[in-house]
Amino acid sequence: MSKKSFRQAINEALRQEMQRDPRVILMGEDIAGGQGGSAGVVDAWGGVLGVTKGLYTEFGAERVFDTPISEASYIGAAVGAAATGLRPVAELMFVDFVGCCLDQIMNQAAKFRYMFGGKARTPLVIRAMYGAGFNAAAQHSQALYPLFTHIPGLKVVVPSSPYEAKGLLIEAIRDDDPVIFLENKVMYDDEEEVPDEPYSIPFGEANLTREGDDVTIVAFGRMVNFANEAADRLEKDGISCTVIDPRTTSPLDSATILECVEDTGRLVIVDESSPRCNMATDVAALVAEQAFDALKAPIRQVVPPHTPVPFATVLEKLYLPDAARIESAVRSVMAYKKAKQDA
Amino acid sequence: MQIAHDILLRSYRSMRTIRDFEERLHVEFATGEIPGFVHLYCGEEASAVGVCAHLSDTDTIASTHRGHGHCIAKGVGVEGMMAEIYGRKTGVCHGKGGSMHIADLSLGMLGANGIVGGGPPLICGAALSHKVLKDGGVAVAFYGDGASNEGTTLESLNLAMVWQLPAVFVCEDNGYGEATGASYACAGTQKARAAGFGMPYFDCDGTDFFAVHEAAGQAIAHARAGHGPVMLHVHLARWYGHFEGDAMTYRANGEVARERAERDCLQKFRTHVTETSLLDLSALDDIDTSVKDEIEAAVKAAKNAPLPEPADLQADVYVSY
Amino acid sequence: MTDLITPITMPKFGLAMTEGKITSWNIPSGAQVEAGQEIADIETTKITNGYESPASGTLRRQIATEGETLPVGALLGVLAEPAVSDADIDAFIAKFQADFSSDSAADTQADHAEPIMVSVGDLTLRVQEAGQGDATPVLFIHGFGGDLGNWMLNQNALSTDRRTVSFDLPGHGGSSKNVGDGTPAGFAATTAALLDKLEITSVHVVGHSLGGAIALELAKTCPQKVASLSLIAPAGLGQGINMDFIDGFISADRRKTLELVLNYLVHDKTLISRKMVEDIIRFKRLDGALQGLQTIAKACFPNGRQAEDLRPVLTSFAGPAQIIWGEADEIISPNDARNLPDTIPVTLLPQTGHMPQLEKAADVNAALIKLAK
User: What ipTM was estimated for this complex?
Assistant: First the structure.
């Protein structure tokens, strides 16, 4: 056990799984970096934000493949390799680049098993960075997990901390289905205690980071930290919240969400993805349909506006949900009184 | 290249099976009993069979939406294929894939593919598996002249060269991407495209089994020996429309009839083996009879096979969920 | 005057950099530099980059020393023309440093003795040592599914005049997950080897639950090492065992189900904290942890009964011994303490479950101290 950053936790998960299983290979743009450059350096970057640093040096060119900037070909290659005996972990750098290779993910990897009558296994992990807060603007900041969640055949992981990231990535690599593993780039330097040993966290099992009686907050990825912050502040005012980190959007732990809403009767959902057809609307529909009677107040969503992610700091701050907005949403559902009671 | 007797017989049988399978589908589709899209491979048989004659189950192929021929050439059974096309539970994909998604990974058949240009990237991955697992296998992407314009194909040519993969890119050039001629849609030449990536290029008459067999043999040997990927450009013609029901109003009068009369790969095969005394025609006639029976039996079995059940709807989306 | 002074600060390379290490100064203090000249090498988690001078001037001061890691924006050095006085530069630096507050600067943690990793044969054991003094040391052995944290209310109390040692058994906590055959005898052999490694020749042994059986095995094979035996709700004295607990502990993989299982451990159910449940879930997620527990359960509790009868070891043990048990134990019945020789005192604690060392720490500590005197 030692303090590790989100970046180190992911690096360690990759290293330990590569040590455990020779079929695990890595590919991606500049995941080593420097090949063919005039300096003759072959592990220059370790990915654009340094997550895979050192793995090329440790495992060599037989296991770690730098790719051309050519998402369609190498994501497709990862799919083909997964279907034929390897367990590739492909890095798509920024998830926004999925526009260049969605076919390989949506029409190929996701559908093999079903359309081939259950005979295919595609044990593939696609890692990608997501999230606003980096002034990376509209094409490098999206939170596209709803897009993948929409596609049957994919599993989608949105880890909320270094501990979660390591255990969920190891689970993803051991999983026999295609998994989209999304890393919020703002969190790479977040640190916490992470076991040195390999461990895995099962998919479809939500984590309750806070337990309370008044309001259930469902939050995804980085938003879990904001939700915790809001819950801790509200606790001081006597409002106790349950915070649910679903960990995976597909599969989604509906049972835990419904149970908690049954207990608290109030629901706030925090999602940094664009507000139409996102996880917030998905969870809201789930609860409206299956826990309607438990609700004491309307469901509130804390989400960005329906705009691309802006560049300027002042606008980006306005765009992203934060602890203050979550706090005010919770207060508003607590203050809600039904206008008229049925006789 | 001298071709062994049994390989000649097997290859003829494969080509005849593809021909009869497709001709029969053409008839059955018209009855309205076959759901969905069907794209026929008739006329192109020598390409799939000439290439696959050099492959074993440890080699991988990826096919196209026009995939029946590649499936049969790679060894997928016609009974399971026919049942699949009829949407039956006994189909190779349990009725959940249909004509465009027939696959059998145990035979190294990575699937027909409903997406034009879907196969080449997958084949880079399969070739990577062969390379990393050191199993001596090669991976072959069949794709059409239409798919040759997809970015996925061009990116795959580059990636395969960068990674020096044991991959073979077989461009089956039948002159049409759906209803648009290759002379309109393909700038430059396939040969120049290969050269642009520094990739060795072979081409051959795709209606001549012996020509395909010869060129494919060289191309595959190059890839299998670890010398990197190659392109094999196969010139051929399709005898039916892009899909069944396509009246082919974009093709000149007499074009298909001339192809059938002058470039029938089965007829050319028979002529060649007779002239060179390689095979006895009676042996080929026996194969014709046997294949006819096999297709008849497959259609009969498919029509009588059970339909998928409601529980199948939600089965096999994931290995576990 | 300050506009003649240019601060050189930790640059931000790329998007993610928050701090950097100055690996070397390429320019000595006092040397003239040109704008764009590489004056230092800065290393981040990703890359090492040459840092180009933002301006021309004389490098008057190197504030950062080589090897130092500093946050982005921190003062590395000062450029100024020779005309600027040293006093002005000192004032500039003082003001800069006062204005520049860094969150990463405050990293003053109290020095706590952390557990250490000790190699014993092929195994690595997590060991918590405390105390020093001449009195005979104390060794704590936890039970099935536990770890050295089970002794958090006890170890310090025993450490005022002696060395004390708690550790994670193989398959538990932070120790190697290889549990061998999973028998108390096997664990006793590992325990003996650990004592040798720590150069402890004689020790008061405190064993809880399965750790009690291990203590008895240790007394059987290495009596010379065991100064006394304090057995808390020990296994080995009877046949009964709550298999709902054992099986449930192994199978429960969610907080809710595990919490119900852990409730068996204590009389006061409010003692089962969120953190305790979470820690056990985290332990169980480690590779090999579950298999280890299964092996132990199979070896120690085949057919739902305790496999080993260690009563004869206890009754024939030459040194002092005692038994401590909660009257409300739901895992192993305190009735197992009946019919022992009068020389072995039995402390029965009312309204106490299977973990008296947590529920009645003061009583347990008093009894342990008494025997270790």
Answer: 0.95
